[in-house]
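Form 7-S
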Amino acid sequence: MTESDRPDEQLAELRAEIDQVERDMVGHIEPGRWVIVVAAGVFALLVAALLPWVGSNSAWQVLFGHVTGEHRIGPLPRLFAASSLLVGVVLSAITLFSRRWGLAWLCAFGSAFSVIHGVWAVWSRQTSEGAGPGAGMVLALLAMILLAVQWLGLALSRP
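Output:
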């Protein structure tokens, strides 16, 4: 190997490294101003999980079926509890830490589906006999609406 071949090798290695950094950056997002609103939405969901959803039962009790009292909990509140906690808390946290663009889209779509589940859950509690939707269920629905809007805005912000 001659001395003149060495700079070409170094340039090729440098170009490969630059290309790898570019590929890595294309899949990343910078949450910027959205991170505070998303974190507030996640915190609101955690608070909502502790508040009553049906009667005196919290989201955790609704989710795991440990309902006290005479309240009959259908599948819709359970579905909303599961989707809001999984998408709103777990997936949002993973996405904020990993900053992957694909996960931001998954959070946007998952939050939108969770909003639909939440509207169904509130409607089912309003139309059934017994206790209506509690403050926790309504707060969780509002938090999921906020998260859906924020994740969609963040996913669309990537050029």
